[in-house]
């Protein structure tokens, strides 16, 4: 029976009890501050770089030991046969479940364990997990090992004060979110781990800022364009056909027609930051001619006209757009270039597609977390949509579970940047929001 179905007196008693539990939770969370810091630092110090997929088993073993000690039943699951999975870099995932003392719904916290390349420009050790001025630095600190640590401590603090709760709590650490999630959440969803009969609420602690609820994300279409030419001696380029020049014409046509058109497309989705409220296209990479010379080679490249040039594009589109129209816009660019250039030949290959998704504000997990944000931070939650995709896409499309959001500590703009960090106070606040949400969803009023 929900609070809405109860008499006013019982409803007031229920609210008072849950608020008392929330106050006890806050004390419990504060007592675990040092543990939260240490856990976050430990996770950062495991260099789970993707690609190629380093140390996945190491971090899963670490999490498994921690969660078993907290009374969870733990599974280690390898995503055999998924992209990137091999004996050198197996795609490991960990799923932990703690049953309550009575029947009820399941709340699942899902975090990805992989981090992107370090890149240049760091002043901190990328895998040092250094604590300085209330911030923990390192690759993956905000995206999203701080969120993973916060969800674990939130669950443990909740269990300390509500050991006989109703329902179940699950915590997962999953692979490959940064490269599509096919060896992680997508695989688990295919195996039924996110079926609505098993899990009813999902919170993904991505770093969207502690006062925001992320309802979903824009769509993505990745494709590779290859232009073809004819190899010849570099001193006589007129005897060949330069594929790089052909690709240059493609880029120029994009500059002249496609980019201005995309800038005019706007969405009603609450996408952040502001620039992502329009359709975007990124030239992700371009390779033409000879391969890069091996490191340490001191000779010169040979003089040849390149007969191939490849470009990968990353098109982000809005919920108001149709995927077929997105593809047609790129095809129109290629047809336009073809009409203007002799001997222009190309090939277009789709690499990846994800449709936009957005959970309704009236969904139970949204309303619960919004209430917890207001109670913890003293302000209304902001509803946003992510500019890029994350693993909600697989929970929604494959798992058919639509009661899913992203909520976690960390500043979105720091993701994938040098000197990435997560603030300790932000994590403490997020732990309280997550813990309050567990109280609201899994604690039943006493008669």
UniProtKB/TrEMBL annotation:
It holds the Pfam family M20_dimer. SUPFAM superfamilies: Bacterial exopeptidase dimerisation domain, Zn-dependent exopeptidases. Keywords: Cobalt, Hydrolase, Metal-binding, Zinc. InterPro entries: ArgE/DapE, Bact_exopeptidase_dim_dom, Peptidase_M20, Peptidase_M20_dimer, Peptidase_M20A. GO terms for molecular function: metal ion binding; succinyl-diaminopimelate desuccinylase activity. Residues 216-339 form the Peptidase M20 dimerisation domain. Its cofactor is Co(2+); Zn(2+). It is an enzyme of class 3 (hydrolase). Its EC number is 3.5.1.18. Belongs to the peptidase M20A family. PANTHER family: ACETYLORNITHINE DEACETYLASE, ARGE_DAPE-RELATED DEACYLASE. This is Succinyl-diaminopimelate desuccinylase. It comes from Thalassovita mediterranea.
């Amino acid at each position: 029976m929900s609070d809405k179905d109860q008499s006013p007196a019982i409803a007031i008693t229920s609210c008072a009890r849950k608020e008392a539990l929330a106050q006890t939770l806050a004390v419990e969370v504060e007592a675990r501050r040092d543990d939260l810091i240490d856990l976050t630092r430990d996770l950062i110090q495991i260099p789970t770089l993707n690609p190629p997929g380093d140390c996945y088993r190491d971090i899963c073993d670490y999490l498994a030991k921690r969660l078993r000690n907290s009374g969870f039943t733990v599974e280690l699951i390898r995503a055999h046969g998924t992209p990137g999975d091999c004996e050198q870099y197996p795609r490991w995932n960990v799923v932990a479940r703690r049953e309550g003392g009575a029947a009820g719904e399941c709340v699942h916290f899902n975090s990805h364990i992989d981090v992107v390349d370090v890149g240049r420009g760091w002043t901190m050790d990328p895998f040092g997990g250094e604590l300085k001025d209330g911030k923990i630095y390192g690759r993956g600190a905000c995206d999203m090992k701080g969120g993973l640590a916060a969800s674990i401590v939130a669950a443990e603090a909740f269990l300390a004060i509500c050991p006989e709760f109703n329902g179940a709590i699950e915590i997962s650490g999953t692979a490959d979110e940064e490269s599509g999630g096919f060896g992680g959440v997508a695989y688990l969803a295919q195996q039924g781990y996110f079926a609505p009969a098993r899990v009813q609420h999902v919170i993904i602690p991505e770093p969207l800022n502690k006062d925001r609820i992320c309802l979903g994300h824009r769509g993505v279409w990745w494709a590779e364009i290859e232009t073809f030419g004819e190899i010849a001696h570099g001193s006589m380029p007129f005897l060949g056909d330069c594929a790089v020049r052909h690709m240059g014409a493609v880029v120029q046509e994009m500059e002249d027609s496609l980019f201005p058109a995309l800038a005019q497309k706007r969405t009603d989705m609450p996408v952040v930051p502001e620039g992502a409220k329009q359709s975007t296209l990124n030239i992700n990479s371009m390779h033409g001619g000879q391969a890069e010379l091996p490191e340490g080679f001191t000779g010169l490249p040979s003089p040849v006209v390149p007969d191939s040039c490849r470009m990968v594009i990353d098109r982000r589109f809005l919920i108001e757009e149709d995927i077929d129209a997105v593809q047609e816009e790129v095809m129109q660019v290629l047809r336009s270039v073809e009409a203007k250039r002799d001997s222009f030949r190309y090939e277009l290959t789709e690499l990846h597609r994800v449709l936009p998704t957005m959970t309704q504000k009236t969904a139970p997990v949204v309303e619960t977390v919004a209430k917890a944000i207001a109670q913890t931070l003293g302000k209304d939650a902001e509803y946003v949509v992510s500019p890029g995709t994350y693993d909600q896409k697989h929970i929604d499309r494959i798992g058919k579970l639509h009661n899913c959001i992203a909520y976690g500590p960390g500043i979105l703009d720091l993701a994938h940047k040098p000197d990435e960090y997560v603030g300790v106070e932000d994590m403490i606040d997020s732990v309280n929001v997550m813990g309050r949400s567990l109280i609201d969803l899994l604690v039943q009023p006493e008669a």
